[in-house]
Amino acid sequence: MSKSLSAHVNITNPEQMGYPYLESIKSFANLCDEVIVVDGGSTDGSLEKIKEIPKVRIVEGCKWDYDFEWTILARNLQTGYEQCKGDWVFHFDVDYIFPEKNVKALRELIDKVDLPAIEIRKINFVLANECFEKDHYPLLLYKSNYKVLGYGIGINEDKKESLTFLNPVSKRGEKDGIYFGDIIRRSKVRLEISDIDIHCYDFTFMTREQIEEQRYRFDMALGRHKDISYMTTKEKCFNNFIGMMKERHKECKPVNLEFHSEFIRNKVKNIKEDQFGYNGFNLL
Questions:
Q1: pLDDT-derived band of residue 152, with 50, 70 and 90 as boundaries?
Q2: Number of domains into which the chain is organized
Q3: Is 177 strand, coil or helix?
Q4: CA end-to-end distance (rounded Å), the chain
Q5: Taking a C-beta distance cutoff of 8 angstroms, is the pair 278, 128 a contact?
Q6: Exposed end of the chain (fewer CB within 10 Å): N or C?
Q7: What is the chain's alpha carbon radius of gyration, rounded to the nearest angstrom?
Q8: Would you state the pLDDT for residue 161?
């Protein structure tokens, strides 16, 4: 009997932020038996559009205000995971696209594997016509056979908490309503490592104003979590972002339109001049 597959995603005003969220959710609905959307209080009209996508179920999560709050993100991640009914569970972000050409291969793979997790490759786009392989790999968790898996605070090798809450973990306990435990990675558990790709569009379709806003929220939140007292500006955050993208740009290889999934191809073809992926605002 074929194993079932669920996916879950967190959203808070994805249309306002310029993410390709509809294309993303549709691509995972094409892959999975169900998609759970955990909403952090969206007010930009995105929920009404998401409701029209088959196989999607929207659940209410903790409200995520302007501040980029890691603890709320951790709780919403776990909410989505717990709502998933599939044997295997895949967390994705609203800038991820799962290419239709890889659906058959992944569905066949989950029927064969009896390990806690499957690791797949992540292909990141900088400009719309170039990409690179990122050294971060999304995981599918075998929920039905490994009940101790979840999302929460990762524990580093020195037994200290990780800097972010964005990790799938092997649960050791609970702290303030959030699980904590060993991060699931190659050195911790046996993984099935696959050559199946997922595509990530990061900031490709964002305007400069959207990037400034997003990077400012993220950098300020990271500073608070590290307990670093500093003041920054949106301009400084944007300049740091451009520096990072220049480095990524050096790693990129060119791709043609057909390389993109059909779910996102039209958006790529019609990318606008004021969106980063058009030419990097002529700053790269």
A1: confident
A2: 1
A3: coil
A4: 50
A5: yes
A6: N
A7: 18
A8: 60
Q: Which two tokens stand for residue 239?
A: 């300049």
Residue the block writes with tokens 């005003």: 13
- On whether the CB atoms of residues 38 and 10 are closer than 8 A, the answer is yes
Cα 182 from Cα 161, distance rounded (Å): 10
Burial class of residue 278 in the structure, from the number of CB atoms within 10 Å of its CB (0-12 exposed, 13-18 middle, 19+ buried): middle
* Domain harbouring 238, CATH code: 3.90.550
Q: What is the pLDDT of residues 181-240, one digit of tens each?
A: 888 877 667 778 888 999 999 999 999 999 999 998 888 877 766 555 556 789 999 999
CB 91 within 8 A of CB 71: no
**Which CA distances in Å does 95 have to 9, 23, 27, 67?**
10, 9, 11, 20
Per the document, the length of the chain is 284
Give the E-state strand segments of the chain in sequence order. 5-11, 34-39, 56-60, 88-91, 96-97, 117-125, 130-133, 139-142, 149-155, 167-175, 178-183, 191-200, 253-254
127 contacts 204 by C-beta, under 8 angstroms = yes
* CA 172 – CA 262 distance, rounded (Å): 41
Q: What is the pLDDT of residue 74?
A: 85
Q: Provide the pLDDT for residue 179.
A: 86
Q: H or E element: which one contains 269?
A: helix 262-269
233 contacts: CB under 8 Å, gap ≥ 6: 216
Q: What is the DSSP letter of 4?
A: P
Tens digits of residue pLDDT in 29-70: 999 999 999 999 999 999 999 999 999 999 999 998 766 677
| Domain around 244 | 5-282
pLDDT at res. 162: 59
